[in-house]
Ribosomal RNA large subunit methyltransferase E
Amino acid sequence: MSWIRRYGRDKYYRLAKSMNKPSRAYFKLRELDSKHALLKRGYKVIDLGSSPGGWVSYELERVGEEGLVFAIDKDELRIKPHNNLVFIKADILNTDLERLISSIGVKVDLVASDLAPSFTGIRSVDMARHYELAHKALELAQRTLGTGNFVVKLFMSDEFYEFQKELIKTFEEVKIERLPATREKSSELYAVCKRVRAHS
């Protein structure tokens, strides 16, 4: 039984606090990894939208001391420093990707994006901003992944279908997941993409 099903959505926040995790997002990535085998010891990971550090905490546990996590966010992390954690303070929309990729300097096994914009409440604006972030994450994944995987947060909208087509063109396998922890009224989804196509 998953942590999410055992404790339920209404206890999810308290569970994160009781286990000293920075956010409930820790358990979302745990659920995705449990289902899709995204992380292994020794893996190199790029984490986008890292603050406060829920996904990063889980990634560090899974990759171990042999692995490496590059965490990228415009806000600071709220987790302790680790020898195998490199934090890059950057706004992905206003960052030179060439310079960012050069600073990372290696091919990675997973690009994980939990990026989302600061929502205005105007849905058309919010979705346009979100998919701008998703496209940046995809571009970074295309240029830094070896034979690895890409996970990206999405929201159901008109833009979703066009972006899904791009993912299918880029990866051999694309699965869309709605996690048990997601609030019922939320349109939040995650795309789990495996094996970059040779022509991409």
